């Protein structure tokens, strides 16, 4: 049995035992002992000790009456079901609690919050939203209102209702929570992307500037601003915007390289691109940057210049990607000389296989890794936590 589950069940067993003992003492004073309930409790405890958590939970729930002294225990058991992936059973417990007329206002709000979590876990967003909206509007306790806002923003996020999520989070959640601040900037980027596709660049820019005012480190906002500039042929403006990204987050520099290359190409300014890339290389030793610079120099000055550049960078810092590209250069050089070497082809096959198999990006929160850059992690659903992998096999 998992340690966390065992701990929760032991705590529940202690709480139930305390309550049953108190009830039995009260019953003895009133000459009405509660032998059945005591027997149920010990049966449940036996299941627990024999590592049969499902039967233990069912026995504890049936043994424990709902009253003001046992509300917290029932809530804990309901939450235990939800964390075990049995949110439908959690719903039954929390709905049963909510129907009790003896609940205080605070207890009722706590149960509504947990029931909303159950519905959210089950994908019943409309039911969860109704409960959360009621708590946001009417909760008597600030903690419950705050928790309801967080859940409601998460619900709208899951539904792709970016404006609604932002409206719920602004300004209180954004001010208090860094993860909500990052998420809000990305919600604005999502709205800007929609406006860009619908040919409303003015609204898109408005959203992106607001995203940067909320989270100045939002690389995505500057990428989209640069894309808007390129859409209208303002390539110098796009370059200027893209060059802000290394100042925002040096590790995210690789995402700016392709649009930078495109902007300089549209200006027919290879010299300007080389100068820009060399300045960036002084700030960070990035594999994709080395390859782009070498490829540009190769077109301008030939294979040998590119080979020397990559070799020099590999001497500074090892990189599987740069080595793979260097092998490409050597193969092209040998083909030009009419003397291909099969050993180089074998090495190239191995480096290519290793590069194809490795992920390029990893979420800093949950560790999910993959080839594409996800602005929202597919695993933990966090915004802005996925970054390029660095090191010998990465950037």
TrEMBL record:
Residues 361-386 form the LapB rubredoxin metal binding domain. Its main location: membrane. Gene3D superfamilies: Tetratricopeptide repeat domain (1.25.40.10). Keywords: Cell inner membrane, Cell membrane, Iron, Membrane, Metal-binding, Repeat, TPR repeat, Transmembrane, Transmembrane helix. It is found in: Cell inner membrane. It comes from the Bacteria. InterPro entries: CellSynth/LPSAsmb/PSIAsmb, LapB, Rubredoxin_2, TPR-like_helical_dom_sf. PANTHER family: LIPOPOLYSACCHARIDE ASSEMBLY PROTEIN B, TPR REPEAT-CONTAINING PROTEIN PA4667. Belongs to the LapB family. Modulates cellular lipopolysaccharide (LPS) levels by regulating LpxC, which is involved in lipid A biosynthesis. May act by modulating the proteolytic activity of FtsH towards LpxC. May also coordinate assembly of proteins involved in LPS synthesis at the plasma membrane. This is Lipopolysaccharide assembly protein B. It comes from Billgrantia sulfidoxydans. The gene is lapB.
